[in-house]
Structure formats: structure tokens, C-alpha cells
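Encode chain A's predicted structure.
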Amino acid sequence: MLLFSTNSKHSGAVLDSFDFGYIDALPTVRVGLARMTQSPVKETKSKPAIVFVHGNMQGAWVYSNWLKIVHEAGIAATAVDVRGHGGLPTEDLLSAGLSEYGDDVAAIAQTFDHPPVLVGHSMGGVMVGLAASRTPVAGLVLLTPSPPANLPGAQAVPPVDETRPLAPADEKTVREKYLANHADDDIAAMLERQCPESSVAINDRYKLRVSVDVEKINCPALCISAGRDWPITHPPGQDAAVGTFYGAENVNLPEAAHNLMIDVDWRPGIACILEWYNRAIV
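Encoded structure for chain A:
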């Protein structure tokens, strides 16, 4: 495993961690029950698009700063809202599980002229794994990923009530689980963008109900783990085991929190992805 050292203490990124202006200005298009941003950069066969997929209770907005960096690098990229997220109708959450979210991602991947690179954060790691087993992709990036059910030794988590969608996480939970490096910062801009989550999808992850047929995936892969992740859902070594399961290169960012794309210093994660993309994909 590669170990990247970062200095996340007030690196200058604090004020723009929650600046979502870039993604808010991008046009979007619906794809089935999901939605994607439109890229100002055109994909090519030699330089495929990157598709960013969020985790639970979040949406495409978490990738605002990363999208800007990728577009400035001349790479086509989109960020996805799977059904019921990012302001989409929440009634679509009622029966949605991880498999349905994987269908949303696969449908978006198929809108491109060439197989794209899929990037999935947290529970989105299962979504992109499912999508990659259902449609051709050029590459796979797993960001602090949830484990598929067939990962040997995967840790289950106590389930939630499955009779109704799960309410957005409160501030204490968000700071503890997702934003460990934002202890002294105002996180209201992030909190207000959260959405309810399908309890079926949550329990698919917590009860380890959804497997990924990794034998159907044949592409370069990268897995990034965060040193300051929440150990209940990301016990030490599990994220790296997910990476190994997919045959990925494993990188650890020891000072990063779970939501590394809106961390105090959000730059190391996207720098790592672009270095890998330029080496393994193009």
C-alpha cells in the first residue's frame, strides 16, 4: 500500500471545502431516475470521461471542487445523483437498494461514447462495482469504499429500521463519521445539502446483502483509504481489503477524513486520482 502524507491543518482549503458554486452552475440532464452534470470537456477514446458517484445521504454536489480541477486538466467528467438524491424525488427511495443504485450508475456510464472511469465514494463504492460488473468501464476508483457482501471478512453493522427512509445525519454524527478534520469549522453548508437515504440500501450495506461479481470486471483500479475514517464502518485494513478484492492499487491518505472530497484539504485525493488516471488510463 502506498502511503501519502498530507498536511491537512488549515492549508488554505478551509474556506472552499463547502464552495459548491462550480457544480451549481453546470447544466444537468436526467438519465432514467438519476441525473448527471454535463461536462464542458469532450471525452475521447484515448481520454475517457470520469464519472463521480456519491455515498449515502449525499449527492453530486460533494464533487464540486474536484470536478473543477478535472475539467481544468482537460478531462471530461460528470457527477451523478442516483435516484432520490440531490433534490430528486425522495419517493424513489422507498424501494431502492444498492442494486438499483448500481443500475442508475450503469445507465449513466452507457451514455458516453466510450467506456468511462467510475469513481465511487463510501456506499458509492458498491454502486460503481455493481455498475462495472454490468457494463464496460475503462477504470474503477474506490474512495473510502463500503465492502461488497462477498468480501472475505467484511464487517457487518447493526441494521436500521427498514420501514421508512433514514433521515439525514445530524451535525454530531456528520462531524464524527464524515468530517473529522472540520472540528472547529462551520459545516452548515454541507448539512443543508444532505438528503434522506433508503433504509433498504443502508441495510444492503450494513447487513452485507449485495455482492459484486468481480470476475466480470476487467480494468485498472485504484482504492484510496482515509486514516481518519470512522472505525465502526471502516475498521483498520478493511478499505485496503476492498481494494485488493478488486485488484486495485491501494493508497492511504493518513490525515484524510471519510469525506475526503470536502475535507479541510480536499486536494490530495483528486491529485492521487489524476496521477493514477494519467498513468494507468491514458
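The chain has nine helices and nine strands.
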